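Hey team,

Sharing the Lipoprotein signal peptidase run so nobody has to redo it. Sequence (159 residues) first:
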Amino acid sequence: MPNVRSALPWLVLSAIVIALDLYTKHLIQRMFVYGEHVPVTGFFDLVRYHNTGAAFSFLANAGGWQHGFFTAVSTLASAVMVYLLVKHPQKKLFCLGLALVLGGALGNLYDRLTLGYVVDFLLFYYQQWAWPAFNVADSAICVGVGMLMLDSFKQPTAS
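Structure output:
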């Protein structure tokens, strides 16, 4: 039987990601009006955008049905990730990736439930090309997925 306490360090990491994500979004909401851009470098701006879709504004203009869909998917995926963290706490790279994805998913879920959209504020661009704006949660999700992919290439150990 898995021990929930053994997953505690991973859940704490997820909580840190959530806290950092929500704090940075709070700062942006206090300091910026919607749509405002503040150039930081020749390729990076701080902005305030509202994303009603998923990652990188996927389905943002779908008419509203996507809010419930993404809420349900995030909730179900989070429950599965917690289960996996409890079941496999000794798999360090796997759990690190899951913890980052879980923290990011819950950070964005909080926005979706309380605001009806996700606050994005990091905008990278080159000349007329721009990457869609994103936030700390999105960054944690991307890094976490990368770690999960890397973990999937590891040779299984004999048990």
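The first helix runs from residue 8 to 31.

Ping me if you want the raw files.
A.
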